[in-house]
Each structure stands twice: as C-alpha cells, then as structure tokens.
Design the sequence.
C-alpha cells in the first residue's frame, strides 16, 4: 500500500460500476508513476551511499562541498573538512581477517555519525579514509572537533573472534575555507597533508620493541593518547 485515491459526492449512491472501473484504471496508472518515483529516489540515494558503512561516498562529498562553497561565498562564511585515516588498518586485516577489518570501518563510521551535528556530512572517502564536512565551522572549532573524533574512535571496544580487544585510532587533519583554499581539491589536499603530518607525529612518539604486534602498538598509542589529551 503506497496511497489511496478518495472520491466524494454529495448524493448517495451516485457512483456506478463504470465510475469504479475508471477509478481502478486511474489508480493503476498513478501507482505505477509513484512506484517509479520511489525507485528513482532509492537508486539516487544508493548512488551517493557507501555500501559497507552507510555513509555518503566520494561522489556525495563533491556535491556537498560544491554546495558549501556556493553558500560560503554568498554569505562570507566558512566551513571545514576533516580527513581521518584509520591507523594500522592493514595490520588488523592481516592479523584478524577482513571481516574484522570491515567491522572496524563500520564502528568508526558509527562513531563519526554519533559525534557530528545533523547538518554535517560524514563520508567514507575510500579504503580506510573518512572525511567529515563541517558546516559553518572555523579553525578553532575544526581543531577541537578533530581531536574529539580521535578521542571517540580511541574509545571503540572492538573485539576479535578470540575475544581479544583491538584498540583503534585515527590520524586526522583539518582544512578551513577560505584560509586553506578556495576549491574542493585544494581543501582536501591541505587536510591530507596535515593528516599525514599528524600520522608521522603519532608514529614518532611510539617506541616499538622487536616482536611487538600491531595490536600492542595500537594499545600503546591509545594509552598515550588518553594521558596526553
């Protein structure tokens, strides 16, 4: 059931079988049109959604950034991009399997959605990278939100099949329009450089002894993060 067509008349018993047949035909044609419209909307939504995480995909990111650019230029405001990269993702896949790796991505996506505002946009940019588009967000707030995302991800309790807890962490970098660029490409490139700088700083702060696993390294990273933030 997707809807009804109701017809009223002031006189009782005014409708004949011919009227009913005409109404049946109209209903059938209207239902086909409505169904096609629903299928079109569903297909369009799927074209902008990542199948694994349910987040928006890179195509949606370009569309959303173009809209934010137009709005910010008209109103003289700003917005921010935060690029996040899941740390040690290859090690998680290698040691625990791709199903656990998929769960890690899904958990990060869930946390990002929970920690953003309704009018922000979370995107799975590709592989183990995510982008959060923050509307009307300047430099100070973007940096605060970036650190908040990192803290929220570090609190995820992901378990492997053997019950072993797998600590998660993300490296992140933020860029702000118009200070860091006036186009989608420049803003993303600046956020990308800052994300890799953050990743290098996080790695350089760790001392890995021979034989340590990626999970133990991730645990050390998480403990250090908890004590320094």
Sequence:
């Amino acid at each position: 059931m997707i809807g009804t067509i109701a017809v009223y008349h002031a006189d009782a018993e005014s409708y004949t079988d011919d009227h009913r047949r005409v109404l049946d035909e109209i209903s059938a044609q209207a239902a086909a049109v409505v169904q096609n419209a629903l299928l079109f909307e569903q297909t369009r939504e799927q074209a902008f959604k990542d199948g694994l995480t349910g987040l928006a995909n890179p195509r949606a990111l370009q569309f959303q950034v173009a809209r934010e650019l137009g709005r910010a230029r008209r109103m003289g405001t700003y917005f921010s991009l935060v690029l996040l990269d899941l740390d040690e993702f290859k090690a998680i896949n290698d040691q625990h399997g791709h199903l656990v790796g998929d769960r890690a991505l899904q958990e990060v996506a869930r946390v990002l959605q929970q920690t953003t505002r309704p009018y922000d946009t979370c995107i799975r940019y590709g592989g183990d990278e995510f982008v959060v588009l923050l509307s009307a967000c300047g430099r100070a707030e973007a940096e605060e939100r970036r650190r908040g995302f990192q803290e929220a991800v570090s609190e995820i309790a992901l378990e492997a099949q053997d019950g072993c807890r797998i600590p998660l962490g993300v490296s992140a970098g933020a860029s702000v329009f118009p200070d860091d660029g006036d186009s989608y490409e420049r803003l993303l490139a600046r956020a990308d450089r800052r994300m890799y700088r953050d990743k290098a700083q996080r790695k350089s702060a760790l001392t890995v002894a021979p034989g340590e696993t990626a999970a133990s390294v991730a645990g050390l990273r998480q403990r250090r993060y908890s004590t320094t933030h």
User: Anything to note?
Assistant: The first helix runs from residue 17 to 47.
